[in-house]
Amino acid sequence: MSELSRPVVARRAVFLVGGYERNDAEGFFRRIGRELERFCVCWSVDARMDVPVHADDHSSATATVHYTGPDGACDADITFLSFDDIVRRDGARAFPVRLWAYLLAFFDYVVSGTMFRFFQTNWRFALYFLYPFVALLGFLWLGHIAFRIVSLLGLPGGAILPAAAGAAVAYAAGRYLGKRYFVFHLMDLWSFSREHLHCRRTDMDGRIQSWVAMIDGRLSEGRHDEVLLIGHSTGGALILDVASLLADRLEKKGEPVNFTLLTVGSTSLKVALHPAAARARERLAGLAKCSEIRWTEFQALTDIINFYKCDPYRLAGLTHQRRDVFPQQFQVRFREMLKPDVYKRIKRNFFRVHYQFISANSRRYFYDFFMICCGTRRLEEARPGSLPLAGVDPEKVKGTP
Fold first, then answer.
1. Can you tell me the distance from the alpha carbon of 209 to that of 83, in angstroms, rounded to the nearest whole number?
2. What residues of the chain score a pLDDT lower than 70?
3. CA 216 – CA 320 distance, rounded (Å)
4. Distance of alpha carbon 83 from its chain centroid, rounded?
5. What are φ and ψ of residue 12, in 5° steps?
6. The model scores a pTM over 0.85
7. Residue pair 63/32 in contact by the 8 Å Cβ criterion
8. What is the chain's Cα-based Rg?
């Protein structure tokens, strides 16, 4: 498609569900503000963000980003779909409750064979799944070492003092290392994922329904040239639920299903690979039947918290009769979208690497989250070898299809 015939997006609506994290809308938009500055420097464009407006129930917040560049101008209404309060409630439970819920989740994934499916599809993600459990064993091991050392001292009281020392060391290690390295948070993540795929999270189901109603209201305004439903990390699974329910709602009303689906760094297969996730697979199959829906997924090898080169539809055990590719998958290279010093600084921090999908680039590249959300290109133009802006050498805009 030539530059002159390229369809221009002057007004866009973006609805984003992030990962399972303690990050409310205010924190999200503070981060967006910082990233926008880097985005502007990278592309020599201008982008300014209005003050976010919160929904009455604080389940979402919206801020408009005003973009101006060589390709024209675009106003993007970016809505962050928040479930931070649910995450915080999970984390506020007594530790024995959290531990029990996690152990149920861990052994559910093991006994059901889902963990082994992780190893078959992406062994790196499987190691990520094992991380909290191995860390807990490590804390117990440190406690056991303390128990053995104190036992060798031959102090009076039998096993009481060694047991107390072992418990104290295990507790101290867990309290410091567990919090510092997100062990307890990831325990809650897997508990949440298990409960959600078993349809036991009525709080999350209610939140998704409220998001769907809100998005439906926005779509009915008909003000946007492009509507993007975006899911990152755990949000990659939740946005599929949102998209399915929204499509059903629009079809029942006889209205067009005029949105595009985008998942980045998605972990949706941690749900769809579980044999008990019948509802998730049913909703996914329903999305494929709606020919108006286009779905694009971006993946990266460097990010261990995603399923690299894995088709989330086919691996869910589903087939469709569509003529187009569903989803359309592209692999990105963070090394090529970041300056060498930036990439070197973050590449060993797997959480920071995971967030690069929704962070600003420091080098021009075909995948740029902020260009997708704020620029005048449609999502389907963000392809390897594409021209994000006029005057950019396509040979320098590389990627792996």
1. 12
2. 1-7, 157, 387-401
3. 26
4. 13
5. -130, 145
6. yes
7. yes
8. 23
